[in-house]
Task: structure prediction
Amino acid sequence: EAQVTQNPRYLITVTGKKLTVTCSQNMNHEYMSWYRQDPGLGLRQIYYSMNVEVTDKGDVPEGYKVSRKEKRNFPLILESPSPNQTSLYFCASSTTRKSYGYTFGSGTRLTVV
Amino acid sequence: AQKITQTQPGMFVQEKEAVTLDCTYDTSDPSYGLFWYKQPSSGEMIFLIYQGSYDQQNATEGRYSLNFQKARKSANLVISASQLGDSAMYFCAMREDLGNTPLVFGKGTRLSVIA
Result:
């Protein structure tokens, strides 16, 4: 089944404790992206990657890191999480064609206390 | 500048009635794609419908249709014969063709279907 798998689904952590949210896709998509969703703000892009070893900042990159060492994986790293990073996070992948929408993962609900 | 505008934070519709969710967009790229996604209370993002900027016909997918008015830069979603299961957040999104730009989302409209 074609899918984007992100883990964990739910995570509660403390301020300053480094964490990684994993994302993997099995569709050989070039394009992968991380979004965060906050009430009233819609989905905002954090980082994206157009291919292996190619990453770039989205609209809200502060406090996040990513890497793309393999085509299928695109982990999101929070080196020192803060409460304002409490949010619902989505990983998504796509081909580079404009007519192709994104396939989304199931989401990770992160709470930083 | 905001590229996707959804002016209706919330909407109510009676079951079996049709409802239109508004979306306007802003781009200078002549080639772009417009998308609608549904997000039920369970949280997942479900792709509903796609419209390309050069498509002559309005897109339709079952009970979903996209009222595309290019000159007005609007891409409204029409849901016919609403069902209780249509209650969800709905997001309009756009992807420009130039430079492999990302999918940009509006802030969403929460639709509530009333029995």
Q: What stands out?
A: Chain A has no helices and eleven strands. The radius of gyration of chain A is 13 Å. The longest strand of chain A covers residues 42-51. Chain A touches chain B at residues 31, 33, 35, 40-45, 48, 50, 58, 88, 90, 92, 94, 96, 98-104, 106-107, 109 (CB under 8 Å).
